[in-house]
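Ticket #4471: structure output looks truncated?

Reporter: J.K.
Steps to reproduce: submitted the chain below (167 residues) through the standard prediction queue, then opened the result file.
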Amino acid sequence: MRLLVGRIGRAHGILGEATIEVRSDDPDSRFAIGEKLQTDEHGVLSITSGRVHNGILLLGFAGFSDRDQIEKLRNTLLYADVDINEERDDADDYHVLQLIGCQAFLESGELFGEVTDVINLPGQDLLAIKTPTQEALIPFVHQLVPVVDIKAKRLVVIPPDMNGSPE
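Returned output as attached by the reporter:
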């Protein structure tokens, strides 16, 4: 699957490096030297150098050796081919696209709704679930989402009290 992993920003220095706005959960492998990234406007770009400077990722690309050449790439979106179904080191690590479209069921077995989005927040992710009457936001933590079956596209959720009244 072709996924957006970054955007080229302004040129940095005179040797053909560009700042990169990272949009990937795995920048170490996505932006490694030798990796090839797809673009809509400039074909495939091969990474020839990479470093972090003041917290900003800087990359160099084959065929772009000076500031003027790199500046022509500004605002170019970078894409990578990613297998979202490959085995991951952490069994509880899911790709957003694996979760969207999953059916969410209550512990009783009753259908609660369908996952329409995953909202990434600094503290935790939230599952946006469209129910028959509203959209519910449920923190994506094991206590509230105890079962995730990606192959069956099925989750079990324990929604927090929706009406805000104490039990």
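Triage note (M.O.): checked the attachment and the full token line is present. The helical segments are 27-30, 67-71, 96-99.
Status: closed, working as intended.
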